[in-house]
Amino acid sequence: MTVYVLGAGASCHAGYPLAKSMGSQLFSWMKKQSNAAGFESRYPTTARFLEDLLGSVGNIEDLFTKMQELVADGENGTSEQRAMRTVVANERGVFINALRSWFAEIRQQGVAEAYRRFAREIVSPGDCIITFNYDVSLDRELRLAGKFEAGDGYGFPIETLPLNSATKILKLHGSASWLALMFAGITSGPFQFQPGNVLGQRPVIGKDEFAFLGYSDASDPAFPRGGAALPVMIMPTRSKEFFFGGNTGVEYVEFWDSLWRQASEALRRADRVSICGYSMPSADQRALELTTNPAEQALLRRRIDLDGVDCERAAGTTAQLLGHEFTDAEAAVAGTAMAALTGFWTQALDSYQQVVERPPVPAERLRRDRDAPPAP
C-alpha cells in the first residue's frame, strides 16, 4: 500500500490558494460579492471589518490566529473586550463560510488535470490519501476514476451510499463539503437532545456536493431537510482545536480521533509513503506526532520517497524533478505534474528528520496543538 500525504501545494495547480496568500486573496474575493443575496451579502462588510481590525494579513494562519486570540482574550476581559469578542466570533463565522463559498467557485472554473491523471494513472486500489486540504477536487477525480466511494471512503460510514471504496481519503483538517448538523436538522417544535451530542456523530454532506463527486441522485440520510449547521474544518491557526466547544458540551472529539487513528495506522502499514505539497510546518503539531513510537518513525522515514521537487513551487504542469530519476511512474508521465504529485518535497524530508530525532512525545493523544511557534 502507498500512502500519499498532500498539502496545499498539491491543490495549487487546480486554482486553490497557498496559505501564505490565502488571507489576502479571500478578502479580495469577498469584497467583490457586492451583488450576492442572502447570507453571502455579508461577505463584503465582513472583509472590510476584519481588514480594518486586523490589517491586510496575507497569510491565512496569521489571520485566523489573530481572530482566535481576540476571542480568547475577551472571554474574561472588560465589557468592551467582551463585546468585541462577540463581534469577532460572529464575523469569523461569516469568514469561514466565505472560504467554503470561494472554494466552491474555484472548483467550477476548470478541470484539475494533474489530479485527474493522478487518480487515473498513479493511485492504485488499496492506497490511502492523507490530505490536509479542504477542497474536494481530488475526491471527485478519484470517484470518476472508479477508485473512491463516499459510503466508506472518508473513514466514516454514510448510510445508503455505495461501500467498498477502493481507496481511502482521510481529510485530517476537514472538508469544505462537510457540515456538522445541529439538532439533526430540526428547526421547530418540541424535541430532545443529549448534551454533548447536539451536532451528531459524523459530518453530513449535501446533495449538491454528492453531485459534484459524480453521483447522479445521492443524498445523505442524516441530512434530509437542511437545518442549521457548522463547517467541519480545522482552521489554520497555530493552536488547532480538534473539537467543537460550546454551552452544550465538547463535541466531535471522537470523530477527529478516529480519523487520525486511521491515518496513523495507514502510515504504520504503508509499503511506501509519498508526500507532496506539504512542508510539515511546526504549527501542525498533531501531524508531526502521527507516529510517536521512535522505531515506527525510523521505519516510516525509510519508506518515504527521496524523489524531490522544488519546494518553492507548487505541484503543477511545470514542476520538475531535482536530479532524481522518477521510477514509480510510467515513462509517459515522468518529469510532469504526475512526478510532482507523487514526489517528495525536500523541505518536508528535512522537517520529518527533525521529528524522528526528537524525544518521544507522551503516549496520550494531543487534541490541541499548544504553544506552536509561528510558521516560517
Low-pLDDT residue intervals, each spanning 5 or more residues: 306-376
Q: Can you summarize the main beta sheet?
A: 4 strands, parallel
Helix percent band? 25-40%
First-residue to last-residue Cα separation:
33 Å
What is the strand tally?
Answer: 8
- Structural domain tally: 2
Q: What is the global morphology?
A: globular
Q: What value does the average pLDDT take?
A: 79
Order of helices and strands: EHHHHHHEHEEHEHEHHEHEH
Fold blueprint:
Elements lengths: L1 E5 L1 H4 L7 H13 L11 H12 L5 H15 L4 H29 L5 H10 L5 E4 L5 H8 L23 E4 L2 E8 L25 H7 L15 E5 L19 H17 L2 E5 L8 H4 L5 H10 L4 E2 L27 H6 L1 E2 H12 L19
3D architecture notes:
The protein is α/β, with parallel strands linked by helices and 376 residues long. The chain folds into 2 domains: 2-15 and 111-357, no CATH class; 19-107. 39% of the residues lie in helices and 9% in strands. The chain has 13 helices and 8 strands. The strands form 3 sheets. The chain has a 4-stranded parallel sheet. It has a two-stranded antiparallel ribbon with strand order 4-5. Strand 7, helix 12 (337-342) and strand 8 form a beta-alpha-beta unit. The two termini are 33 Å apart. Mean pLDDT is 79; it is low at 306-376.
